[in-house]
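FORM 7B - TANDEM STRUCTURE REPORT

SECTION 1: FIRST PROTEIN
SEQUENCE AND TOKENS:
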Amino acid sequence: MPDSQMRMSSQASKSYLLIAAAILLLAFGLRVWNLGDASLWVDEIYTYLRANGSVVHTLRTTLETGNHTPLYFVSTHLFPITHELTLRYSAALTGVIGAAVAISVIRKLCFNRNAALWMGLLVAVNPYAILLARMARPYALLLLLSFIVS
């Protein structure tokens, strides 16, 4: 490969990474903006109670209920929960990771960096994905796992 082509390829890779980082920063900003301002709603209170109980209690109550995802509720124990913001933060972070995984999946499936960046941008600014990633519920995790399964 000639030297000029290698420089162009290197420049394209840097541009791709810079744009991808900007998209993920946008996704992060949209998901955490005023994240702790709203009061908890009923289902988030259930999440709060599970997050502040023991892991065994969380697993038991989640499995007894039968309509919840144990992985999400166990993962809430990884963060100290002291405020609405910290309760919702893991879901917001999962939403950003979902945008990153969407970029990766499309790049691997389509072999097209532009399509991957567009997909990442669509996930980053999708109002429904933003709304669901701002709740202390497993919705953002479900979207992330859907991209991983792809």
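SECTION 2: SECOND PROTEIN
SEQUENCE AND TOKENS:
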Amino acid sequence: MGNSIVFSRPDAKTGPGYLSEATTPHSPGLVLFEEWWGVTDHIKEMADRLAAEGFAVLVPDLFAGQVAHSREEAGHMMEGLDFDDAATQVARGAAAYLREHGAERVGVMGFCMGGALAMLAAMRDPDDFDSVVVFYGYPPPEAGDPATIRIPIMGHWACADEFFDIAGVDRLETALATRGTPHEFHRYDAKHAFLNPGGLGNFHPEHAATAWKRSIDFLKRTLT
């Protein structure tokens, strides 16, 4: 089980987070961005599962303890989030915390809203991360050029996603291929948030297990 911490940002502000540490010293680090629901028990469980695989995991609490109980509430919380601040100041601060506590290599990962943030962090902070794993979400075209990503990226996408059009995934993949960025994109015959047993009720056990194993293998390959 993890615990609550406070970490410093490059702008000298601080941010809250949930830290789940691996049992081995100098473990690779992983910044994990939450879904739009906030830092729920599900997200904490994901962090703990990753820690059990040998990663030191820091989940920045972007909503400062708030957890949404409906789609409307989650949407309102997300609308109030400063994405640029989260993808730069928060992401850099969290990565620095993990490095200061022994991680030589640090990855970034996220689900839904957090997936878009993970990709944004890889675009905006190319020297802070060594690889990125994205579930479901991606940033809008006006957020920047995904071809600026230089680190290895793995993406897990739902073909029937009601929030993120699969055609946008095709455009992302084309941009990354043109740039020559190492990438592994996996598409699943599923709906949005298929890894989450709660949330929207779209949990798909088989695809969830496959995507999780692929992610662990990728992170171990790129961070250890």
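SECTION 3: OBSERVATIONS ON SECOND PROTEIN
The chain has a mean pLDDT of 96.
Strands lie at 3-8, 14-20, 29-33, 56-60, 106-111, 131-135, 153-158, 183-188.

SECTION 4: SIGNATURE
Preparer initials: ____
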